[in-house]
């Protein structure tokens, strides 16, 4: 009973950790073997008998009987006189098994045992959490806001597991209060030291894909396949869908009557504008669809270089580029092509990179970010609109326009 009472005192917190008795006893055996190594230098001549049903274990030390005065290794050998105190009929050369009581290890060793046991149980607990969430990577998960920090929100699930939602994985319009439930996908799980770090994301394309699976039965059932998702989180997304059943309209099924099916997804993503596009292996047609809502006049493609020159009527250009250049950028990401927009009827134009002697590279890059790569494309824009859409000062934009105008006045 002595061992049982001591073990129960060690494992009094096992119920909180939901560790079954068999696992606990296996951890105990490992902890005791480490203690035996520290006290006796080795543990391979010890037998540890575990009884999970009773919650008990026994420790037996095995030694060989040698003649009195000839003991060289007190851990492995026992004198005849000492052996006969255990059993009076022992003889030299026989094996002696003697039970080691836990209290024989000493008070300090028992305190160390307890601390080591706690550490091992935490390690076991953390390993299980790591495995559990590693299997959930890429899946939608819901947890409650526990603590709001400047760079991240700390969430807790129903089992008390901590999940981190970093600032850069939050949609810009996200605003959460303590106690509120948050949905996202488990983006990554890493062991840092012995503690698992679980990262949630609401900005990953995979989150939008999983929302489609949850909200649209045909996607969940595999009747509609999501080929690719690209996003500017909180602003705009494009989703290419396909169906192997000709009777199904994949775009119509995903959007629903008057947007009824996609509405909940849009709301979850902070009113992100979602374009659902029919996928096709015809790359020219795919680019045309990807640039929707703009209507394209013609396309000149270089399949090797993965570039496409798209001709549009002047009134369609702003639609193709989209607010902040999001539409043309996402169309390029979706199709894998670098897309350049040209206005129909404009014969003479000059690319901005030709002005590097007069305009700094970083300024040209700012215009390029919003889909403006030629002189006339910039000159057709309103200055105030360019100030809003770029990180450029009004004076800088006016200077650039002055340089560009002079090119066409010469």
TrEMBL record:
GO terms for biological process: DNA-templated transcription termination; transcription antitermination. One of its GO terms (molecular function) is DNA-binding transcription factor activity. One of its GO terms (cellular component) is cytosol. The keyword Transcription applies. Its main location: cytoplasm. InterPro entries: KH_dom, KH_dom-like_a/b, KH_NusA_2nd, KH_sf_prok-type, NA-bd_OB-fold, NusA_N_sf, TF_NusA, TF_NusA_bacterial. Residues 233-306, 307-384 form the K Homology domain. It is found in: Cytoplasm. Monomer. Binds directly to the core enzyme of the DNA-dependent RNA polymerase and to nascent RNA. HAMAP family: NusA_B (MF_00945_B). Belongs to the NusA family. This is Transcription termination/antitermination protein NusA. It comes from Christiangramia echinicola. The lineage of its organism: Bacteria, Pseudomonadati, Bacteroidota, Flavobacteriia, Flavobacteriales.
């Amino acid at each position: 009973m002595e061992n049982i009472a001591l073990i129960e005192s060690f494992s009094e917190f096992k119920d909180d950790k939901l560790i079954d008795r068999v696992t606990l006893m296996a951890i105990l055996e490992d902890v005791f073997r480490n203690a035996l190594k520290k006290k006796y230098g080795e543990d391979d001549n010890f037998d540890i008998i575990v009884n999970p049903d009773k919650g008990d274990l026994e420790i037996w030390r095995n030694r060989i009987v040698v003649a009195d005065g000839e003991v060289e290794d007190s851990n492995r050998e026992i004198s005849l006189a000492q052996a006969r105190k255990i059993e009076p009929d022992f003889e030299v050369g026989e094996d002696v098994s003697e039970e080691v009581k836990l209290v024989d290890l000493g008070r300090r060793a028992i305190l160390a045992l307890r601390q080591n046991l706690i550490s091992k149980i935490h390690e076991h607990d953390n390993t299980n959490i790591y495995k559990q969430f590693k299997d959930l990577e890429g899946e939608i998960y819901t947890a409650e806001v526990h603590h709001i920090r400047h760079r991240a929100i700390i969430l807790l699930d129903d089992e008390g597991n901590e999940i981190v939602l970093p600032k850069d994985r939050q949609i810009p319009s996200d605003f959460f209060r303590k106690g509120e439930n948050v949905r996202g996908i488990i983006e990554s799980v890493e062991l840092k030291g012995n503690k698992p770090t679980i990262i949630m994301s609401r900005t990953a394309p995979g989150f939008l894909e999983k929302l489609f699976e949850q909200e649209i039965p045909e996607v969940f059932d595999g009747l509609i396949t999501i080929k690719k998702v690209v996003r500017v989180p909180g602003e705009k997304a494009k989703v290419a869908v396909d169906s192997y059943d000709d009777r199904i309209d994949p775009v119509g099924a995903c959007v629903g009557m008057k947007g009824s099916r996609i509405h909940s997804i849009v709301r979850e993503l902070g009113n992100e504008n979602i374009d659902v596009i029919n996928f096709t292996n015809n790359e020219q047609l795919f680019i045309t669809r990807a640039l929707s809502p703009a209507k394209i006049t013609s396309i000149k493609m270089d399949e090797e270089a993965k570039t496409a020159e798209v001709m549009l009527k002047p009134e369609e250009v702003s639609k193709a580029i989209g607010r902040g250049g999001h539409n043309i950028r996402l169309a390029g990401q979706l199709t894998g092509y670098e897309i350049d927009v040209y206005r129909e009827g404009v014969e003479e134009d000059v690319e901005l990179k030709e002005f590097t002697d007069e305009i700094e590279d970083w300024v040209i890059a700012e215009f390029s970010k919003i889909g403006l790569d030629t002189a006339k494309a910039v000159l057709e824009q309103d200055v105030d609109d360019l100030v809003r859409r770029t990180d450029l000062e009004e004076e800088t934009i006016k200077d650039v326009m002055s340089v560009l105008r002079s090119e066409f006045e010469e």
